[in-house]
Amino acid sequence: MKTQNAPDPSDLEARSPTSAAPTTRFKIVEIDLAAPIESIPQGGPNEGVFLLFRVGETYLGHNRLLCTELPAPASRVAYAAAQTTAITVGDLLRLAGFKAKLPSLYQPEAINRPPSIEAIQSELDQGSILKKLSASALASSPAAESVSLVICTRNRAESLAKTLDSVAALQPPPFETIVVDNAPTDSSTQAVVSKYPNINYCIEPKPGLSQARNKGIEAASGAIISYTDDDVRLPTNWIKAIADSFADSQTMATTGLMLPAELRTEAQIEFQKNSEGDGWGYRPRHYTRENFLIPMRRKGAPVWKIGAGANMAFRRSIFAKVGGFDPRLGAGASGCSEDSEMWYRILESGHDIRYDPRAVVFHTHRETMAELSQQMRSYLKGHVVALVIQFLNFGHLGDLRRLLLSLPWYYTRLSVLTLLGIQKTPNLLPSIRGFMSGIAYCLSLPFRHPSRTKATASIK
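^ thats the sequence. predicted structure below, dont judge the formating
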């Protein structure tokens, strides 16, 4: 069951699916900077490379080389590594000026570039940065709390099997793994789960991702409840990274980095470009009511930029305080945003959320443009509904301002630019349809949060 957050439309404005031409697909190549950097050979026809730079299991950044830039000598790859990872390295080494700013609605993130890329590359070549990273910044505390893993799925047995293969390789393993089969129409999911030992299978007959997520809360017994989707691959250290992200007792929820599992179709490349504008990155972030929600809620705080539902975790105790996932939101209901609306409630209740890029998942994006268009429609529909629900819950006028002023103005302006041929905007019509569908859906919304009483009563 796939879930993503609604992107900020202003992040998508300048993007076009033709920007990668003539490259039609990318081969994902991981480069461990602790090893000698090698040249990149010519790939297949119209095939570029998506370079993922890391030190051990810690990812530092990515870059692209188009097919016209291949083959690339080792010196070119090394320069790309230094240029790409300098900001993250500066943050990990606790250097002033390299801390990640919290995402906002209208201004792009300000990034302090180092005065000399060549100087960073020189240190990289000499290995001094790697030694510092290995000695301090990449060190983590032992995993102390039990982590339950919940995977919600519906009629996607083949994809789920690949995810469960990666779950079986986790070290350490989760305290428990729970697969929630949401309103299944056949027994294929149960048949797949039965092939894996130590996995708890349960059925949630009510359709909807929020219903399935709440079933996971009821079934889980770990101190931390982590969620991933049935279309991801988990690295072996994922549970350790999730537990480490809760080292601060004030942290009630965390999200992590989502990287592509493949980039072989136009739709997957376009989705990856869009998601990179949502504030997810390689540097940690710390969200609180005071530093994020209050300063930006006048215009509608961009909680959807906090992370991705395919890579999130919560302290079990927080659900007793704020309730479960809202069944009016998410796949099978409004379309999405059940995760970001939960983050909004957690922040408003005065608790902290952290984005920790050490927790990585590899996500298989939509393969076809038709699927991507449907996804964009769901994004905007769910986003509209979430804005209304947040207003009903807390009365913050910024949510209405975004719903009634910011989004209509944005799409009106974008439509005019598109009709005049000034700008190409992929998935404009699906997004507008999603916005209108969200408005229509809101007319039937009950005013009471249907899941709070049930979720609170089920947590001991």
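The CA atoms of residues 263 and 400 lie 37 Å apart.
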